[in-house]
Amino acid sequence: MSTVENKIAAPEPVQGTPKASGQLDDLLTLMARLRADCPWDKKQSSHSLIPYAIEEAYELGEAVQSDDDEDIKGELGDVLLQVVFHCQMYAEQGRFDMSDVMTTLQEKLIRRHPHVFEAESLEDDVAVKARWDEIKAEEQQAREARGKPKRRLDNTKSGSALMQAQDVQKQASKLGFDWEGVAGAFDKLDEEIAELKSELTNTSKTDMSKEADKYDVNKANIREIEKELGDCLFALVNVARKLNLDAETAALTCVHKFKSRFGYIEEHLAAAGKRLEDSDITEMDALWEAAKRYERSS
């Protein structure tokens, strides 16, 4: 964190109704206004925004695949919003601002491209990648000198929580921290599910409702349930790994299957002149089973 002498000043909120100018400074003052006057934006923290940042990155990838300019512009803007949002919050704490982030990025790009900005000559992309890795190693040495030692699991791949969970388990396994077979992973999964159920018995429906957060009802208890649920997911990923299956692929397959079956329900209700809102769980469940039979026959 910055010292008092170097304390960062957050942007001043824009006054009145702003116009879309395409200028970074105007975007920063707009974000400052949202943090000052929007109840939802005021409530957020860097940690609460993590799921949104991940979601926006995935949506950008989908937009690029679609090759639709309007979608791509919109999703790039949503990713930029996450950067601006985080910078505003850290600036409010006097830690750093957008200028610091951009300067850090510029320094990194210049430092990692000596073949572009200095006399160094590299023949092809393979040589560029090798030099890039050397520079990253030098940067890590500098981090260690600042008291940031590199741990054995620091090289976990970035990605979704499932991807990171499976990779960190794989890395730990290489260091001997693992069960010999899948039976141990299943035992751990059963243990974690039992702990989640036990935690839930101590929590009322009111505690878990949306209103609970509003009135600050037993937030600590809810966080414990979140931790236990995370332990269950982590243990299930371990089962996938021991079965030589990819947890992310398995989850995505399930998502696509669910969407397909639900689409079947919607289509058949529409053919009968009904909306989803006009149906009930009994009718939808029967159509769900019909969708499963259709999958098996096709």
How would you explain this protein's 3D organization?
By secondary structure, this protein is an all-alpha fold. Helices cover 70% and strands 0% of the residues. It has helices spanning 24-37, 39-43, 50-66, 69-92, 98-111, 114-117, 125-145, 161-174, 182-201, 205-208, 210-214, 219-242, 247-271, 281-297. Helix 8 packs across helix 12. 10% of the residues are buried. The mean pLDDT is 88.
Offer a few descriptive terms.
298 residues; mainly alpha
The H-and-E topology, N to C, reads as: HHHHHHHHHHHHHH
Report strand %. under 5%
End-to-end Cα distance, whole Å, is: 60 Å
Question: Segments where pLDDT lies below 50 for 5+ residues?
Answer: none
The helix content, as a percent range, equals: 55-70%
- Tally of helical runs: 14
Mean pLDDT: 88
Given the helix and strand composition, which structural class is it? Answer: mainly alpha
Major sheet details: none
Over all CA atoms, what is the radius of gyration? 25 Å
Would you report the number of β strands? 0
Instruction: Give the overall silhouette.
Output: globular
Question: What's the structural blueprint in terms of helices and strands?
Answer:
Blueprint: H1 24-37, H2 39-43, H3 50-66, H4 69-92, H5 98-111, H6 114-117, H7 125-145, H8 161-174, H9 182-201, H10 205-208, H11 210-214, H12 219-242, H13 247-271, H14 281-297
Summarize the structure.
This protein has helices at 24-37, 39-43, 50-66, 69-92, 98-111, 114-117, 125-145, 161-174, 182-201, 205-208, 210-214, 219-242, 247-271, 281-297.
